[in-house]
Amino acid sequence: MTAASAQAWSSGPNCGSRRSNCSQTPLLPLGRRSRTVTSRSFQAGRSGGPPGRRRRAERPPGLRAPRPRASPRGGGAGRGGAGRARGPGGGAGSRPPRPSVSPRSQSAPAEAGSAPPAARGAPRAAPGAQRHGAGQDLQLVGARRALPHVAGRPRLRRHVVCAVNALAHHVLNKDLSDIVGDFRGFYRQLTSDGQLRWIGPEKGVVHLATAAILNAVWDLWAKQERKPLWKLLVDMDPRTLLSCIDFRYITDVLTEEEAYEILQKGQVGKKEREGQMLMHGYPAYTTSCAWLGYSDDTLKQLCTEALKAGWTRFKVKVGADLQDDVRRCRLIRNMIGPEKTLMMDANQRWDVPEAVKWMSKLAEFKPLWIEEPTSPDDILGHATISKALAPLGIGVATGEQCHNRVIFKQLLQAKALQFLQIDSCRLGSVNENLSVLLMAKKFEIPVCPHAGGVGLCELVQHLIIFDFISISASLQNRMCEYVDHLHEHFRYPVIIKKASYMPPKDAGYSTEMKEESVKKHQYPDGEVWKKLLAAQEN
Amino acid sequence: MTAASAQAWSSGPNCGSRRSNCSQTPLLPLGRRSRTVTSRSFQAGRSGGPPGRRRRAERPPGLRAPRPRASPRGGGAGRGGAGRARGPGGGAGSRPPRPSVSPRSQSAPAEAGSAPPAARGAPRAAPGAQRHGAGQDLQLVGARRALPHVAGRPRLRRHVVCAVNALAHHVLNKDLSDIVGDFRGFYRQLTSDGQLRWIGPEKGVVHLATAAILNAVWDLWAKQERKPLWKLLVDMDPRTLLSCIDFRYITDVLTEEEAYEILQKGQVGKKEREGQMLMHGYPAYTTSCAWLGYSDDTLKQLCTEALKAGWTRFKVKVGADLQDDVRRCRLIRNMIGPEKTLMMDANQRWDVPEAVKWMSKLAEFKPLWIEEPTSPDDILGHATISKALAPLGIGVATGEQCHNRVIFKQLLQAKALQFLQIDSCRLGSVNENLSVLLMAKKFEIPVCPHAGGVGLCELVQHLIIFDFISISASLQNRMCEYVDHLHEHFRYPVIIKKASYMPPKDAGYSTEMKEESVKKHQYPDGEVWKKLLAAQEN
Predict the structure, then answer these.
(1) Alpha-carbon gap, residue B462 to B537, rounded angstroms
(2) Radius of gyration of chain A (CA)
(3) Locations of Low complexity compositional bias (chains A, B) (predicted)?
(4) Which residues contact B409 (CB under 8 A, 6 or more apart)?
């Protein structure tokens, strides 16, 4: 978008808005023509994104091991207050241009892979940012940005971006108001696409693409409202919020009326909880200390640093080798002491009987939960494991690869989990996550979001902060995953203070990446990949 | 492959092989260099396939409405006996070339999109067939052919072919013996691909692509053994057969030893059941009469023809409008009488309570089952529906969009279905279908395969005939779906006699399509699509 519109959209230091009901927000055209984007502008081959950590908790190629850090990362500067971008023609009073999505002229191919422009005067603004396109750039680029899971996995990313392209005709030439005015209908339109439904339905590539597109729409909507996404949701009246949710296939467990009652109850004490979040943030746990493959020395070092930094909740990866797990869990438990919280994560390595047997051996280290003990599709398997481990005081956590609300509905029905881990990019964006947050509340199961992938922390913090303020109203047994990993590539990285997520204050869904990062990690021509691929050849 | 090798691989009229144990089959090199194929040879843009019927049971563009036909289609000619291709240097005694998959030289791009060549002298042999490539052509082309679900859904097909390409490095430069020698390991290798697992796991595009590649491998293996696939499986010793199955995530319900016992029991009376199949075929039901959107007159006409042709089992699509359903079901039940079998299919249209309510209204028409009443992911929902409809004598059937063995395992555990509908291309090929057939046997749930999509009948008939001969040993409550639709595009179309599938006699998995069909339906440049796309523009 242009610097002016970026400025116009940036929220005030207190994220205040003079509209408390987003549904009443008119999206008036300013008569200024916006730049356009061709579908070429999100071709996979030209899309960027840094290499993420690999499956099985290996380190990503050419990336430093994550190191816990407690002090707020650079985000302090340039975020809110004095640091915030201030430009002519901006300010809270000015109206934004009407966002819309339309084909970009062939004349601007060079901008295809570029990140959203910086607000004029914003710290680290990319050179020439002002030359970049309009609001809809943000939306389309956002659709590519909103692929944290797949950033850095080029073969994989290509598929998802390809699916985003296949769904593009649903958004191109639409005004934001057309989309959010009937958001439930639009969600259903994307997930019921005649052809693409066949390669789902509501799962795999096509659902990741749905999430990417809708995450970008939510980012645009929040910017339009000059609010961070969590605040957009908190301020939204319950009926409008419910109109974003597709209740199809879950009405046997949660009707719209039940959901409305939950949200109404959530209104009580909302202001206080928002104040609490702004002051203390949302509790986090760290996964940065104990990846598989770390030497005991590295593990000790990272653990020591994390303790110094004030972390009190730790997750260790398990499942490769039992004796190795016993040694590493003993080491960590001894370091953090009996009071602090330890969680374990098996990344789907076991069959059901194996999971029970293995965890019985690790019970002595008092884990709060075992995460992904088996296939993410195995609802009844998770239920069996939950039942078997309950007497040992070990809960079951899963969700990062549960592909839609129907799976979460059953996990709750079957008492298959004690900790529900939503994912901001696996489910169908905010829309579907809202339905899962509401079902979790009905079953009184704490939501502890999955994060850590490239940008996942940036996105999911909005959802869990909204959950606390408007739905769960509780922090008991609740925390959000945190991995100190690759945040430097994001324009609005998370801020962690005293092992808690501090609520983002910038408008939007925090999905934007830095232009220089995107360029550098462009596959296969970016500097980073060129080096990696050359190294592989030698 | 060359005419000579085609001949060498073609099975005798009785499909006999002098090897009864495929696992002992050496794959000896003949010293003849085989032609090669580049990965370009299955680029999505160049892949073909006829338009299939659309979701919601609409007619595919530009295709005649399916009409039941009982007499064996042209397949009689050129299939077995005198009609079979006989070429010099062929004969049952001659050895095939060693199949392998390696990059095709750039010199033969024109062959990239071509169908496998016809055996010399075979009816309707494509001109210049002899010029076509070697065994591995069949395997790679097979990977594109083995996409029945997606043929004719160009945006969708593009994704799956793209995923096939992404998995290609697992097969390229491999000998068939390398793959089938450790088939379980190879299956695990495909489904555990570090990057692509993220966009599954074992679901969606990447799993359809796994199925496509493995279906092609099975086609090649069966041709190598000069047997139709069903016969390859029937003759395979149980241990070898089990070595093709990945038991991961299902051992809580079926261990390898339990599976072995099932197969051992299946040996008893096998020869008689094979004889029974060869003589009478496997019972089928027709879905051709009662698509949604057919006028009552069309419905009557098709029903009359089907009855004349000897059909005794009929499926009607329901779920769009209750009153419409009542009228159509009454019409069909009146036409077929009280004795014949009627099934209903809702194609996932309902929520759980809605499904129970709706079917209670249609119970008077005595349907044997309601198919896909709700989301294919909703195991517990199907269980609830099953329990509610049992007193009405209505069973629940599902499976065509159940994405892997873990879902089927749970459907069986939860008593969520009374009829299990495997799909030859949704699950991970024969390998994963074998595990589902064995689990179904353990729970004594009849398997009634899904078919009807482009080529699905051709493939799945092999699996269900094997199931009867070697696993279930029963025809009670069992039948295979049949739609008289687009078989004319296949080189070895199904043969239906007296409403039964007659066991294929040609070597392979019946996946091959005719070269002229592929050319004609190439997207977007094929004659058919050019017309359709031009029509859309006007």
Answers:
(1) 42
(2) 22
(3) 101-134
(4) A378, B249, B250, B252, B253, B254, B439
- C-alpha A37/C-alpha A48 separation (Å) is 17
> And the tokens for B64?
């005649």
Q: Write out the E strands in B108-261.
A: 174-175
Q: Which residues of B touch A147 (CB under 8 A)?
A: none
User: What distance in Å separates the CA atoms of residue B181 and residue B537, rounded to the nearest whole number?
Assistant: 52
Closest B-chain CA to A153: B195
* Torsion-angle region of A473 (φ positive above 0: left; ψ -120 to 50: alpha; else: beta): left
What is the reported pLDDT for B143? Answer: 44
How far does the CA of residue A463 sit from the closest CA of chain B (Å)? 22
Chain A residue with Cα closest to B351: A249
Cα angle, residue B23 at apex, residues B17 and B27 outer, rounded to 5°:
75
What is the value of pTM for the model shown?
0.78
Q: Do B55 and A249 touch (CB under 8 A)?
A: no
- Which residues, in sequence order, are CB contacts of B311 under 8 Å at separation 6+? B68, B70, B285, B286, B499
> Do residues A506 and A228 touch, judged by C-beta distance below 8 A?
yes
Chain B residues in contact with A166 by the CB 8 A cut-off are 155, 158-159
Q: What is the ipTM of this complex?
A: 0.78
Contact A380 B194 (CB under 8 A): no
Per-residue model confidence (pLDDT) at position A154: 62
Interface test with B, best of A253, A357, A377 (most B CBs within 10 A): A377
CB contact under 8 Å between B251 and A205, yes or no, is no
H helix runs in A225-321, sequence order: 229-235, 238-242, 256-266, 270-280, 296-308
> To which H or E segment does residue A175 belong?
strand A174-175
pLDDT (tens digit per residue) in B69-115: 333 333 333 333 333 332 333 333 333 334 444 333 333 222 222 22
Diameter over CA atoms, chain A: 68
